[in-house]
Amino acid sequence: MSPEERREAIIAATIPLVLDNGVSVTTREIAEACGIAEGTIFRVFATKQELLVAAVQQSLLPDDAVEKLRFLDRGQPLDEHVRSLLKIIAKQFSRRRTLELALASPVVPDGRRFRNLDKDAITRLHEGVADALAGYASKLRVTPRVAAKILLAAAVSRATLRPNDAALSADEAVDFVMAAIAQAYPR
Q1: Which SS3 state, helix, strand or coil, does residue 167 take?
Q2: Tens of pLDDT along the chain (187 residues)?
Q3: Phi then psi for 83, rounded to 5 degrees?
Q4: Model pTM?
Q5: Are residues 173 and 82 in the same domain?
Q6: Is there a single domain that holds both residue 14 and residue 33?
């Protein structure tokens, strides 16, 4: 395995651990997840903090979500397409929310440096959703770009509010988005 491949493998193993445990994850847990000796981590990263920063940076990238958006079934009815889009985007925002909490930790200093990366990630998600809705333009009362903004707003609600609070259920989110974007949607 090349040094870059090893670095990527360690980051990839660290991300789910940070999402599950926050920055309290240990290098021993990371090493076990990678199937490597703990010392190997420190041959790649000078400190645990450096590894966590790399994992947070990688996690903020919406590449997986954007890729899933590209391969959604464009032949399904609009409301089912919206449901699929919401599921993908809500998962990305939930992940983002978990990372925001990690960024607030003193272990990952100066979370502000991630803001431009985060802004780019949101832009890429918006463009991916707009592209995924473009084939439905004739069924929309707004442009696909505006519909994407509405869908992203609903996904943020689903991802950031606890279900027993004011979060929309999956069905409520689909109804909300469809009522806002579809030319004809039963109420």
Answers
A1: coil
A2: 888 999 999 999 998 898 888 778 899 999 999 999 999 999 999 999 889 888 878 877 788 888 999 999 989 999 999 999 999 988 888 777 776 676 565 555 555 555 555 677 888 889 999 999 999 999 999 999 999 999 998 888 777 666 566 667 788 889 989 999 998 766 5
A3: -60, -45
A4: 0.75
A5: yes
A6: yes
